Amino acid sequence: MHFRKLLFLWILVFSFQGSTVFAHEVLLILDPGHGGSDHGGWSGDGFKFGNGYVAEDAYTFDVAKRVEAKAKEKGWVVAFTVRDKLVSDHVADSDEYNILPPRRNLIFNLPLPYEIVHRGRDGLGKRLSVTRRLNREYRGAIQIFVSLHIDLTEPYVQGMHIFTGGIKNSNEFAESIIREAREQGLGFRVRSEEKPMINEKAHLYVLRRGVITPRVLIELGNFYNPRDQLLILRSEGREKYAEVIANAIEDYVK
User: Fold this and answer.
1) Domain range holding 49?
2) In this structure, are strands 198-199 and 161-163 parallel, antiparallel, or unpaired?
């Protein structure tokens, strides 16, 4: 019996050797959609706008950087699934329309060699590889995964839409987002009629295969809705999105 106890303790010590338990720490993993060779939209070119295109990746990354700044002020650990190879932290702060350049230099946040972000299941799998590594490294922390996207659909669809994959903890976190979003007038509407903001049925790849809980994918707004487009293209609108997400996380973890 004594030998078995010693053996159990030895296995326990060995299994935790070199590993840190981050009890009560908050780890926020941000997944700004698209980037690299994929600028979003149906074709990967972005959203049709005037005579050209607006890159979705530029705006999801901009909102993610704003969320990161607010999260760091609260003392949380922040990590990205993708990062800029040029280490650019710039966000556009003009109140005018900001047509931001595509984020062509985004790479997967993985060890060398660098790999430019691309679409498809392989690209999504690499994003999830980052989350699995972080899940192991920050064992014991409160871990939250937020994937950021911008929708493109009929102009009468407006507001924030949250995908949870039907995961219980993700639904609970989504409720915190909903409270903040509705307070800021960002509720989900179709033809001006308020609709449920949570979609549990769409089992998106990053939700179905993810390991972080809670995990959500947020469509911040619909680029082809005039009001949402104004929010997306203006710095103050993107700041509002970031505030909603940061405040919702604070509400969820307290």
Assistant:
1) 21-253
2) parallel
